[in-house]
Fold each of these.
Amino acid sequence: MALLEIRDISKSFGGIRALDQITFSVEEGEIFGLMGANGAGKTTLFAVIAGQIRPGSGQVLLRGECITGLRPDRICRRGISRTFQIVRPFGGVTALENATISALYGSDSPPSRKGATEAAAVALEAVGLGAQKDRPASELTLSGQKRLEIARALSTGAGAILLDEVMAGLTPPEVDEMIATLRGLRHDRKLTFILVEHVMSALMTLSDRVLAMDRGRMVALGVPDEISRNKDVLKAYFG
Ligand SMILES: Nc1ncnc2c1ncn2[C@@H]1O[C@H](COP(=O)(O)OP(=O)(O)OP(=O)(O)O)[C@@H](O)[C@H]1O
Ligand SMILES: [Mg+2]
């Protein structure tokens, strides 16, 4: 059974059809890439999966169970967590405190503060922020703040992580480091990722399969090689 199944999801904002009958599934342990020009609906799809937005129609299933319309905290506790395109840490507090808050949020039963702090420290170490855990989040570089977003998602204990443009704005060496970090996380923690990325080389190297979207619709779904040669994808993406 697929870990996650997106079944015929549509969502309109006024006259804009942000998502139009999106259907695909993601296997456990897969890195699933989502590409599409600005406004394609990628972030909206993440918001639907994570429960921040209710779809107009369609279903999201987690291990065969319908989670459509559940509150974001409930979905997080069932094991789906996301990062945000615009990083939004609590700037005044440290990286460790930021990740601790996420650990508390993701926990089913009231966890001990100590347990949450430990989970947070492990997550920060896993994304390479171990040495900076006591720095205020606002003092981290952009790359550090993107890593903190990932650490916060990991701290919740979720096994499926939705990453919204964690490489945007990074330098090429930082992108390479991020690719290595994500590969390591999948390998060490058996995580499943859905990855939205405009950095095409990164998306294509990391993903097992890629879904190309355009103005809310599915254009093509396949392995990276197929997608990068697909005529409809090239037309939608590069004009
Ligand atoms: N809360 C909202 N209210 C109204 N329209 C919205 C809302 N959120 C998204 N949209 C519209 O839905 C469409 C899809 O937006 P979305 O942010 O999902 O695209 P995206 O693929 O993430 O784009 P980008 O690559 O720029 O991040 C756009 O036309 C956008 O303007
Ligand atoms: Mg977006």
Amino acid sequence: MTVRFPGDKNPAVTGRRKSRHDSETSALRIRGGRIFDPTTGRRGETGDVCILNGTIVPSLPAAAPILEARNLVVMAGGVEVHTHVVGPAVGAARLLCPEDGGRCLPTLPEVGRRYARLGYTTVMEAAVSPLGARSAHADLDDVPIVDKGIFILLGNDSVALEFIRDGRFDVLKEYVAWMIEATRAWALKVVNPGGVEAWKCGAHAPDAGKASAAPSGAPGLSPGPPLVPAEVDLDATTLGPDLTPRRIVTSLASAVRDLGLPHPLHLHMNGLGLPGNAALSLRTMDALRDLPAHFTHVQFHAYGGRTMKGFRSRAADLAAWFDDHPRATLDVGQVMFGPAVGVSADGPALYRLHRANRRKWLNLDIEGQTGCGVVPHLYRESNLVSGLQWAIGLELFLLVRDPWRVFLTTDHPNGGPFSSYPALIRLLMDRTFRQEALARVHPKVKERSSLAGLTREYTLEDIAIVTRAGPARALGLERKGHLAPGADADVVLYNPSGDAEAMFATPAVVLKDGVVVARDGEIVQETRGRTLRAVPPRGQGRARTALEKTIRDRFERTTTVPFEDFPVPDG
Ligand SMILES: [Zn+2]
């Protein structure tokens, strides 16, 4: 007998009903699809994927129910390595930008549905202040279907900075573990290390407007002094000689390594959006060459030129560095033309954007822990800076040789909404489509980037790597991003098409934990999804007690939240 899913119109997707003793979803054979599973080396060979109780298994009895996948492309569920969809910053952005209408700032239920409709089944919120963790988790509970987690911000946290300044690295490590546990986070994120705190203390604020340094629609400025100010440097001593950004990132990356967290330090480098910041990025990457690190939205950190007038790509230099350093991973933070919303803990970078695009903005001070800025923005094809940012992202995708280390993101909603991923996939897979798009952008983009000369086209295998296998591996999600036995049964079936955008915009079937949640772009069942958290080893005895006393004292002195109310409780 044929199983009909709600709204079932596609005769390719059918199956036999299970016996009445089976639960509705316990066993399922996805039969005869073309499997793209880079982790197990399958590159489109025809085969079956067997599911039992939400997990991929090696085989099933012949009588098991069948989901016919003949002629369909089969991949693991997509894994989002970096997005901004929950927590106080995103909530503030929704308040500031009601005109967005959900395009870049979807409601919480719509976040889960929209990701699931695109075939994404795991989503990482990349920036939550420790004090925002409780609110972020409450938000996550309202995001259906997908599994999800948060990264916690400590690169400008006054307690962490004090331990780093004083060289108390064992205590710092214990503090990181305590914070990951208290906030139920998956990873440690650092945004503009030390730079947000320095800015909050008054460094390099007064000239930001004159510098007009943000990635913006502002017209070119006359040549002048370099726009990357001395305060924005890896060895800046604004916070003191023992608290340089170099020392902050290497200390925290070492702590993450020593704790054995599943994901390395997730780093948003200093100097975001500034012309000429590529030199600083390269020095930062070199400083972390022997430590595990993931560099996020690298597109925003790959700029040459000394002023906005000279703004140009240095993607090739950064890509060459990644080719030479096989431990490092990056996500791109691709810019897509159209409306976007800057939402970042990098208060100074968003302030510069606001001064440049002259749009409304919002700043939150997170009680000595981090910063937060929100600015709406519009990326235009006709604008040189927007066009270059778009080209630089694509250059990074096409120049970094190993797809296992470059992941597909738009830094949603900073570079554009995640709903534009199918269009981005087409830009990567279809050179003609890309050249047509390049022909529409500002003519100088061709002179100031290498995109016009890049002929590489991503294969379906490459797409499977940059959207699921690679991010899952970098995140340390052992049950995600692949279809080997033991993996979570998060599986996506696509109708193959010469139009990659159409193919990836509307998967034929999306399964989450073995349950069909979407069909032909429609949600058919709204499951809950899990919240993923890392559990680092914790110190014992006197050291732990002393650390908790330090944290408690700090809360009592400077924080509006009582210490007892800070750790996120079970449930
Ligand atoms: Zn981000």
